[in-house]
Automatic annotation (TrEMBL):
InterPro entries listed in its UniProt record: Cro/C1-type_HTH, Lambda_DNA-bd_dom_sf, MLTR_LBD
Protein name per the record: Helix-turn-helix transcriptional regulator
Signal peptide: none
Cited SUPFAM superfamilies: lambda repressor-like DNA-binding domains
Domain HTH cro/C1-type: 73-120
UniProt superkingdom: Bacteria
Amino acid sequence: MGAVLVVFSVMPSLSIRSGTGYRHSQYYDPPPGSAHTSRMDRQELGAFLRSRRERLRPQDVGLPSGPRRRTPGLRREEIAVLAHISTEYYVRLEQGRAPRPSGEVLAGIAAALRLTDAESDHLHVLAGTAPARTRLHRRDVRPSILALLDRLPQTAGLVISAAFEVLAWNDLAAALMEDFAVLAPEDRNLARRAFLGAERAEATLYGISDTAEFRHQVVMQLHATLARYPTDPAVTGLVDELRNTSPDFARLWEQHDVQAAPMLTKIFRHPVVGQITVDCDSLSLTDRDQHLVLYSAPPGSPGAEALALLNVLGAQASDYLR
């Protein structure tokens, strides 16, 4: 009939006694004080696994496609075989009903689903096997970073929190994008401005040519942020607001992507100086889970000349952006 039957067996090398019998150690919730450092988000983990499975094709993992596949992607039993775990346990994982998997099981699932390094890290965060952060994401910027922003007169720089809040900026960033000082703190959130700041979904943000790509990047990074800070009201509130009020955000959110492609260049269409092509560098400030974003241009280039003109115009250029 064209169907392929794969038979396998799992030989548990170690079992643990529970109150109702024996359970394989790979699938057993660890006792308090174990190496696991954060809670397991069962529902989000299941949704993430399902989204990754549905993106795989049989030929991606060396299996025949077969004539009768009613749903996209691989079957659950195929992933279980590739990961060397039972189909029943994998099904329960996708349904959000399984106990916490071990690192060995997660590694097998990551290999079976062909996850990237970023996706594999996200998998461990959702499973609660990654080191836990503090309950709230940080908004205080290191004084040395604030001083650095002021020492970059030819570079537009700003510091972004894990929830896309603009925490600090220099004068050139204000002239290039907008004067964040005149905005209320909640209005300095780039995720909110990208999805809710314009009447049309295709409208650009700050005149950048890749606004659609930036929106996708925002969703991907917020997925990872929510996994790291699942009880932070600022993070959960932002995600809920965007999912409930922006159809575009809700659509992208359901894709469960977590790895953003680097944005190496960016084109701004500024109302005063016109088109500006700049290099875009995002530097991770790991101690506070923040990013330093820098927009610069090679000396002598049209982009550098435009940034120099904005530097001279200063606050006057910001007035045109309001």
